[in-house]
Design brief:
Layout (H helix, E strand, L loop, with lengths): L5 H10 L16 E2 L5 E5 L4 H6 L6 H12 L8 E4 L13 H18 L3 E5 L1 H7 L6 H4 L4 E3 L2 E6 L2 H6 L4 H17 L15
Helix pairs in contact: 1-4
The chain binds uracil (URA).
Length: 199
């Protein structure tokens, strides 16, 4: 049994051929950020800009995500960000259950390595895949669930907020709830100034 470490993770993703998605991409997007972060954010899958750059959440949705984190005083370099699938689905379609299942091995290893205390699930794909296949994001966003010592909360995907601004007040409630959870767990970075500006 090989030792599980970041090098193995990177190699495993680079060499992965477990589903057909890797045949049509420019770059794999394993995820990035603080590998010791107590907070992990999980989205759906890379979009066009992410595919071009090999980095998660760097396109328009990613820029909004950076602002959402900033709205509660969290610099995004302090968190770990990744996706359910590491390869861009063609035309940004939702990954199939088979693709998500094939990629589970990577997400599992990543979660094992980061050891987050809190996970925020961005959008219904991540919420369905990691929390509850029947979940309705409009109804169940903002609700905390503890699994094996990890607190998880689904919220709207930033792309959904870009499409429909009327969802932003609820997303802001979720960000404040995230800040409260981090404080409750003693994880809110004490060197950061509190902000309360909305998103
Ligand atoms: N949408 C996602 O779900 N992930 C990204 O990395 C970018 C957009």
């Amino acid at each position: 049994m090989p030792e599980i470490n970041w090098e193995l993770f990177e190699r495993q993703v680079a060499e992965c051929r477990l589903c057909p998605l890797c045949g049509q991409i420019r770059h794999k997007v394993p995820g990035q950020g603080d590998r010791n972060a107590p907070l992990m954010l999980i989205g759906e899958g890379p979009g066009q800009v992410e595919d071009e750059e090999g980095l998660a959440f760097v396109g328009p949705a990613g820029q909004l995500l950076t602002r959402m984190l900033g709205s509660i005083g969290l610099p995004r370099e302090r968190v770990y960000i990744c996706n359910v699938v590491k390869c861009r689905p063609p035309h940004n379609r939702v990954p199939t259950p088979e693709e998500a299942e094939a990629c589970r091995i990577h997400l599992r290893m990543q979660t094992f390595l980061v050891k987050p205390r809190v996970i925020v699930l961005l959008g219904s794909t991540a919420a369905k895949y990691l929390l509850n296949p029947e979940i309705r994001i409009t109804r169940e966003r903002g609700i905390w669930t503890e699994r094996k010592g990890i607190w998880m909360m689904p919220t709207y995907h930033p792309s959904a907020l870009l499409r429909d601004e009327s969802k932003k007040p609820q997303a802001w409630e979720d960000m404040k709830s995230l800040r409260e959870k981090l404080k409750e767990l003693g994880l809110y970075p004490d060197l950061l100034a509190e902000k309360d500006g909305g998103i």
